[in-house]
Amino acid sequence: RFVISTEVWTDDGHYGTTIPALEFAGTDSPSFAPGVTVGAAARTNVGCFNQSAEANSIKASVLDAAGLTIGSVTLSLAANAWGQTALSTIVSGGSVEFEPSDAAVCYAVVVDNSTNDGRFISAAEYRP
What we know:
With about 130 residues, the chain is mainly beta.
């Protein structure tokens, strides 16, 4: 199981957003996180939780707005482990395609470089 519960607040504590606990079940299907940006204005981290009792290699391909692959990173996770890494490929309005070798739950977090506000994007599974 992978359960997320989070709160986001401004520096002065006046405005906040609470996100309710969400539980995700992972599979080995490809999944996608849309709306990622890496550049001067924002950075993006990608992460996955390996729901398998075995090691899991997860390829995260960065796709541009037209859907073309322009970069990738690989998360090599031990059994039942979690990992996160930053993307270095410059992209605006792109997406990330996750391809796990076993059951995993993946996500992206786009962070505004001027305010450090983050936006959590749960990857949606898709298998045509």
